[in-house]
Amino acid sequence: MSWTHSVAKSFPRMTVFNAANWRLIQKESCIDDGMQDQRPAEMAADQLAALLCARLCHDLVSPVSALGAALSVLDDESSADMHDDAMSLVRDSSRQAQAKLEFARLAYGAGGSAPATLDTRELRRLTEAMFAPSKPEIVWKVETPGLEKAPSRLLLNLCVLGVESVPRGGTVTIEATETGGVARIRIVAEGPRARLNEDAVKALEGQAPEGGYDGRSIQPYFAGLIARNAGGRVSAHAGEERIEFVALVQPHVSTVA
User: Fold this and answer.
1) CATH class of 3-253
2) How far apart, in whole angstroms, are the C-alpha atoms of residue 185 and residue 172?
3) Domain residue extents for the chain
4) What is the pLDDT of residue 141?
């Protein structure tokens, strides 16, 4: 039985975390020093940086372009009747751009260079602000008050995958605990036509898609890289109108991603 299916089997539909489930998953997923010997060859640092920049620019194009359009209207004296709508667009777009930058600063960047335990209330704020314009409803069920930096970044990246899995709306349920030096993360996306992109599944496991990595597949690759660098693994399972991402990581063995 593959790791993906053993993890999925361990979680009945919408089962919440409990110690017995996680002990079983940790045993079956073999989160230990031996896993490091099975790691795939990782991408060169310059290629990773270039593709992450492409992803970030892609995410920022929409709000920044909208800001430019709104400012053009405000500069046009003949469009005075549209100034109120333009100001509304400025406010909305600036909020979106700020939310995306704050989210990306931690999800893709260092988010502060020193190791730290991050308040999960801040992770919730970042997540809800980032996905406020999205169709799925964010359901926050994180039990722990704090997560170390590596699992925090992983959680945010898996949230992106969860939201993208249900483009027609639904719910994205976020669960996480951290005990005994092991962080446990579970993201469940449910909605009509929930989908799991094959390239994203490969990228999560460090395997390049057929056409190579691009600005979209780099994000799941990076999520998997964070887990691997923290002595763990992340995987995905697709069901009927339901996508599930599960990860176990050991933050104390983390290296820089």
Assistant:
1) alpha beta
2) 13
3) 3-253
4) 95
